[in-house]
Amino acid sequence: MEKKNIRSKLVEARTSRAILKLRRRFEKWPAQCVVLDLGPKFVLVSCVDEHIRFNGFECIRVEDIRSVQEHPSASFVEAVLSKRGERRPKKPRVSLRSTSALLSSANRAFPLVTVQTDLVHPDECFIGRVVKVNPMWLSLLEISPQAKWERRPTILRVGQITRIEFGDGYSAALHLVGGDPQPLKPSR
98 Cβ partners below 8 Å, 6+ apart? Predict the structure, then answer.
C-alpha cells in the first residue's frame, strides 16, 4: 500500500474512530486498534487485545505499516466492548512531535515504557524508565521479567526505535511488583 494512502487512511480512522486492523512490517499478526493521534513519524493507537479488551497504547512508526483496513468483525468487537463496559480510552498526554518528545512525555505519563527496535533486536523489547533521551540516544533503566530493576541503563539509538508502548497490563504488573527504581548513583 502506498505511504500517502496509508497516512490518509490513518487520518480518516482518527476521525471516524473505527476499529482497525493494522498490518505491520515486523509483525506476523495485525494489530486490532483505534487511532487516537497521528504525528510526523508515529501513529498513536489504543490496542484491543485477544480477549477483546482495551490494553494500553502503542506508537507505531508509520513507515512500518503495510496496510490499514477496517476490522472485518468491527460490529462484534464493538458489541463485546460495549457489553463489558469498556470505553474507548482518551488520548494520553503524550507528544508525537518527535521520537525523543514521545519518549519523554510517555515516561512522565506512565510508570514504564516499552521500546522495540525490530531491525536490530527482532523479537526483543526493552521495558523500563527513561533516564535520559535526546534526538540520538535513549538511556533506559530496564526492569526484568522478574520485576527486578537493572543497576545500569541500557543505551539505544533513537533512530532504531520502531515502536513504543505504555499503559498495558503487562507493564502495569511489572510496576506493581517492582515498584519505582532506586535513584541511580552518579558515575565516576
Answer: 40, 41, 135
Q: What is the pTM of this model?
A: 0.92
Q: What CA–CA distance (Å, rounded) separates 134 from 117?
A: 17
Domain boundary among 34, 60, 91: 91
Split at pLDDT 50, 70, 90, the class of 183 is confident
Grid coordinates representing 100 are: 525523543
Q: Position of cell 500517502?
A: 4
Q: How far apart are CA 116 and CA 123, in angstroms?
A: 8
Domain CATH code at residue 151 = 2.30.30
Handedness of CA 88, 47, 57, 134 (dihedral sign): negative
What's the domain range around 75?
Answer: 1-91
Do 116 and 83 share a structural domain? no
Confidence (pLDDT) at 17: 86
Residue with cell 512508526: 61
Identify which of 52, 44, 56, 34 has the alpha carbon closest to the alpha carbon of residue 175.
56
Measured from the Cβ of residue 127, the count of other Cβ atoms closer than 10 Å reads: 21
